[in-house]
Amino acid sequence: MPEDGSTQSATTWPLPKFSFKVLWDSQELAFQEVSGLDVEAQPIEYRAGNNPAFSVLKMPGLKKYSDVTMKKGMFKGDKNFWEWFKAIQLNTIKRKTVVITLQDETGNAAVTWTLANAWPTKITGTDLKAQGNEAAIETIVIAHEGLTYEVA
Questions:
Q1: What structural domains does the chain harbor?
Q2: pLDDT in tens, 35-94
Q3: Rounded CA gap, 43 and 56, in Å?
């Protein structure tokens, strides 16, 4: 007989990834997609000349954070991305704290990623198609100097 889920606990199921919110400073923006929330420790390889083992040791080195890519619909009069990017051209980069929160079924924060000192590196406007039937989507890529991960 198939399992209908009635006997399983609420913590057995993985979180759905479609309910999330993004805060830029204290402003909430609605995004369609967020990707690039990863960090890696670059390995350092070392071998002393007098080491009897004929292999290198590997130890953790500097952390490397990926750029985060965010996509959202274009709305008339909305120029948040472009105003932020314009600050770079004037050599007065405004760095922001960006908080991305994955929500559970009740809308409460389940997982939170916080990007420190974020700033835009690339903006991609929508592609235009005379026979298209999709919403206009713009993309922003942001660099940051640190990613913290918190579970509620």
A1: 20-39+66-151 (2.30.110.20)
A2: 999 999 999 999 998 988 889 999 999 999 999 999 999 999 988 888 888 888 766 788
A3: 11
92-142 pLDDT tens trace: 788 999 999 999 988 999 999 999 999 999 999 999 999 999 999 999 999
Q: Ramachandran region of residue 117, left (φ > 0), alpha (ψ -120 to 50) or beta?
A: left
97 vs 89: CA distance, rounded Å:
20
Residue written as token pair 């002393």: 48
Distance (Å, whole) CA 122 – CA 77:
20
3-state SS, one letter per residue, for the chain: CCCCCCCCCCCCCCCCCCCEEEEECCEEECCCEEECCCEEEEEEEECCCCCCCCCCEEEEEEEEECCEEEEEECCCCCCHHHHHHHHHHCCCCCCEEEEEEEECCCCCEEEEEEEEEEEEEEEECCCCCCCCCCCCEEEEEEECCCEEEEEC
